[in-house]
Amino acid sequence: MENIKHCGVIVRRSEDVWEGTRTALGLAAHNYWAYLFVFDVTVEMTEALEENLEWLEEMECPIYSNEAQNAQYGFQHLETDMLARELKKMDIVIPFGNRP
Question: Is residue 1 a part of any domain in this protein?
């Protein structure tokens, strides 16, 4: 995995958001550029999730969502087609959790 620099973590279920942030944090801690993509999910904020999102921000990991409501938590809102364009820039994409 030495040539992989940009890793996108895709989350598509609300129950996987916290664990998905942990995965992105783990990648960032191992010197990968980690990106979190939350598709079609309105985030339910908890103290633990808020802490993870703060860590992602500190580690300069972009967080994206196609749900406009998630912008209040620091997610950059992008329409689905723009999210797809961002995903194409990744060296590896990790679909996190089970399918919805």
Answer: no
At 95, give phi and psi (nearest 5°): -80, 115
Domain hosting residue 20, numbered range:
6-96
Run of H or E residues at 44 = none
Name the pairing type of β-strands 76-77 and 92-96. unpaired
Q: pLDDT band for position 61 (50/70/90)? A: very high
The two tokens of residue 47 are: 């103290």
Whole-number Å distance between alpha carbons of 65 and 74: 10
pTM of the model: 0.91
CA-CA-CA-CA torsion for 13, 24, 85, 60, nearest 10 degrees? 130
Q: Cβ atoms within 10 A of the Cβ of 18, count?
A: 17
CB-based contact 83:37 (threshold 8 Å): yes
CATH of the domain at 54: 3.40.1260.10
Evaluate the CA torsion angle 69, 78, 80, 92 in order and state its sign: negative
